[in-house]
Here is the input.
Amino acid sequence: MAADREVAAPVDLVADGTAALEWVDGYLQRLRELPVLAQVAPGEIRSRLPASPPEQGEPFEAVLRDVEDVLLPGLTHWQSPRFFAYFAVSSSVPGILAELLAAALNNVAILWRTSPASTELESLTLDWAAQLLGLPAAWHGHIEDTASTSTLAALIAAREATGGRAVVCSEHAHSSVEKAAKMLGLELRSVPADEAFRMRVDALDLRDAAAVVATVGTTSTTSVDPVRAIAERCRDAGVWLHVDAAYAGSAWVCPELAWSRDGVELADSLVVNAHKWMFVPMDCSLLWSSRPDDLRRAFSLVPEYLRTPDEEDALSLSEYGPALGRRFRSLKLWAVLRCFGREGLQARIREAVRLAELFEGWVREEPGWEVVAPRPFSVVCFRRTPGTDEENAALLERVNRSGEIFISHTRLNGRYALRLAVGNERTTEDDVVLAWDALRRAAA
Ligand SMILES: Cc1ncc(COP(=O)(O)O)c(C=O)c1O
Here is the structure.
């Protein structure tokens, strides 16, 4: 660019970067002081920001100031140790730093040659994760953004490979399965669950099915479908088996929780979200398949401008999923796996399970409360009893509005249930004690 047309960069990487890092450090330290659920009205944050962009560039300092003053009150703090809603997640420090490096490198792995390191690190880290989780060594793994995309990709390959017209899943499968079926024009066939919220194999109807999606760790109760029995039915019927272990798959790093992996080795594809319970920042969804050639057949489309020698094409991970441009997501996964190691992952997962078990015990012992689903991992489903659905819903609203904790709800057998999900790596026993105390106060 000619000197007279050069645009002054109002940002100093080191000075502003240091300020940003200090802000991040301060943020992570004061999480317990912030209301977990954003206490703002719809439209409020937007109304506090200029409607048009600036004509002249502003210093980065101004951006950081507005993050603190304007945006922070409009954030629900997913990083809070008192976030117990949905599935509690954590963006750990190695993951945060690796995201910075990935943004600085800005590699776009459309082809192997456009980023050999990103492509090869991705396939290596997926092999590492497979070893940690006890998956078959021969599986091919790559990263998608979310489980919704991973499941969509698996179902596209399943449709292509089997020619089937239906997707079969339990009534407790995540809505992303129904959404994928809808996008693909496939029939969704819902299978009833048993008393422990697991798919009933005797009710499986595989006529004209492209795929069954079995879930290990359902969204409502974290129930575990009988994967082995489902896999045997799929094998006999020539139907693709996709396993959605978006949340619970990470737990397989702990030998005592690996019972929930039974039969997964027979699956055609599997999704585990590293951004759910593997302490990796959003987004990082791990998709493995024992049939990579079927994935490649479904997704490979190489226009002239992207042609390279065949042996390179086969390595390009864009050949195995919907996106062409692929960001360097494996860097953060690699950083977390290296900095935590197997033992660090196990310790964090065990602590979450221990805290959920403690909470479950308090609910069971206290008159006026009941646990309403088995607890295989770190999520407790419970409610006030006797108490109407409306009373339980009002209780949830009160406790969330207090800002002390954030929990979510579900509906089980037609009845409203509260859900407390432990999973944030910073959550301590004191936080769970506070959650129980806040709930009892709100109920009083
Ligand atoms: C079991 C299960 N599968 C899939 C998803 C969708 O995950 P994502 O937000 O990565 O698409 C969720 C979300 O919580 C889930 O609980």
In short: The mean pLDDT is 96. Residues 86-87, 146-148, 174, 176, 215, 217, 219, 244, 246-247, 273, 285 surround pyridoxal-5'-phosphate (CB under 6 Å).
